[in-house]
Design brief:
This protein is mainly alpha-helical. It has a domain of 111 residues. It has 6 helices and 3 strands; from the N terminus they run H-H-E-H-H-E-E-H-H. A hairpin with a 6-residue loop joins strand 2 and strand 3. Helix 2 runs antiparallel to helix 5, helix 4 runs parallel beside helix 6 and helix 5 packs antiparallel against helix 6. The mean pLDDT is 91. This is DUF1453 domain-containing protein. InterPro entries: DUF6622. Keywords: Membrane, Transmembrane, Transmembrane helix.
């Protein structure tokens, strides 16, 4: 199948999701105000997408779950390191909101995440026998976990450094 054939057979909702993710990544280039809970939207979205992918493609087989666990662990470590030198969250004066500095990392990893998941799912579509291959399901799990782990690592790095410096914040 040609690239055009692959793209033209991609469901429309996938392109809507990609557009939404690009908008989120573009917004992340600039500083923005948010509630602290909004910090966790993207990591949660990718975690749900990843778990859903393992369920749909491999019915949660052991190899995919182990792969995702390993990928999450390494991704969290990588994300923590990548975001270590990023600007910290700031409390907005006289407000319960925080200010998150802009960074290109979010957009870069959104695009990387989408492309990697898209390629894996296209491979599964073109090679249905891969649904039953333990090696491929493990690879799928590792890549899915790694991508999501990077978002979790970066988010947790920002959150814990903010929480440490903001002991007056409720619930901290």
């Amino acid at each position: 199948m040609t690239i055009f054939g692959i793209i033209s057979h991609t469901p429309f909702w996938v392109w809507i999701l990609f557009f939404f993710l690009i908008l989120r990544g573009y917004a992340a280039l600039s500083a923005r105000e948010m509630n602290i809970s909004q910090l966790f939207i993207l990591p949660l979205l990718f975690l749900i997408w990843g778990v859903w992918g393992l369920k749909e493609a491999f019915n949660f087989n052991v190899a995919s779950l182990i792969g995702m666990s390993i990928g999450l662990a390494f991704g969290i470590l990588a994300g923590w390191q990548l975001w270590k030198n990023q600007p910290r969250l700031k409390n907005k004066p006289h407000s319960e909101k925080i200010i998150r500095a802009g960074t290109p990392l979010t957009l870069i990893f959104i695009i990387s995440a989408f492309v990697s998941k898209y390629c894996l799912l296209v491979w599964l579509s073109l090679h249905p026998e891969a649904h039953h291959a333990a090696q491929f399901s493990a690879l799928f799990g590792v890549i899915t976990g790694l991508v999501d782990g990077v978002f979790w690592g970066g988010t947790l790095n920002l959150f814990f450094s903010w929480r440490k410096l903001s002991p007056h914040v409720r619930g901290a």
